[in-house]
């Protein structure tokens, strides 16, 4: 009898071990999940498609197993209490016109309906502008200067129209020696005497909301533009960095915008299906 009892005890123990290893231990995954660090960051982009806004969230730790995890936003929404974010690989996102843009929202990480961690955020305080584009540099021989211009989609938006732009430029041989200028317009003049003669330069731009009602983060950098300064003899810019470069830049910008529209179409189609 004692031998039979011992055998049953061993069998029961083995069943528990096998059950736990296969992921069916009762409440085991929830208990383990509560020990993890699920810190995350989010940013918003307003009017990405008409009146629709984008919210994008991701875990700070890229190695987190997010297979069964969900994101939910509640509060400061139009006509609904909460919305679930879609998932694309390790990124969670939602594109909607339901953001009220007033007051706090609560964004939570959830596992099977249970909240693991939550953060209060204002959609208008986590805005990341779209990257500038069409960066161009034109040399004016009569003025001995360079006129830098660029474009931004925010000029055509109703929200987040006021931006601060950071222009960074450097000699290509000086990889870490960036010169930086902040401005609110989309035009900057660089004096020729401030630059090295007969040198190749790289220039790029990024933007951040002007801290009035909207606040947030720096955009991604624009594609870089490259130009060469005239030599000491007064020679003009190489044609490679004049009209030809502008043509290539326009083709590149059109390609980038078409790709962006394609991605937005996928997001909208995914929302419609959901």
Report on this model:
The chain is α+β, with helices and mostly antiparallel strands and 274 residues long. Among the domains are: 40-121, Immunoglobulin-like (Sandwich); 133-228, Immunoglobulin-like (Sandwich). 22% of the residues lie in helices and 36% in strands. It has three helices and 15 strands. The chain has helices at residues 2-21, 28-35, 243-273; strands at 40-49, 52-59, 69-74, 82-84, 86-88, 91-96, 105-111, 114-121, 133-140, 145-151, 163-171, 179-183, 187-191, 200-209, 225-228. The strands form four sheets. A four-stranded antiparallel beta sheet has the order 1-2-6-5. It has a four-stranded antiparallel beta sheet with strand order 4-3-7-8. A hairpin with a 7-residue loop joins strand 11 (163-171) and strand 12 (179-183).
CATH homology-level superfamily of the domain at 133-228: Immunoglobulins
The gyration radius over C-alpha positions equals 27 Å
Using DSSP, what is the number of strands? 15
The overall pLDDT, averaged over residues, is: 83
The helicity comes to: 10-25%
Task: Please work out how many helical segments DSSP would assign.
Answer: 3
Strand line-up across the major sheet: 1-2-6-5
C-alpha geometry: elongated
Major sheet attributes: 4 strands, antiparallel
Structural class of the secondary structure composition? alpha+beta
**Low-confidence segments, ≥5 residues, pLDDT <50?**
10-26, 234-244
CATH topology assignment of the domain at 133-228: Immunoglobulin-like
Task: Sketch the topology as an H/E string, one letter per element.
Answer: HHEEEEEEEEEEEEEEEH
**Portion in strands:** 35-45%
Distance N terminus to C terminus?
A: 60 Å
Question: What's the CATH C level of the domain at 133-228?
Answer: Mainly Beta
GO molecular function, one term: cytokine receptor activity
Main location: membrane
Subcellular location: Membrane
Domain Fibronectin type-III: 131-232
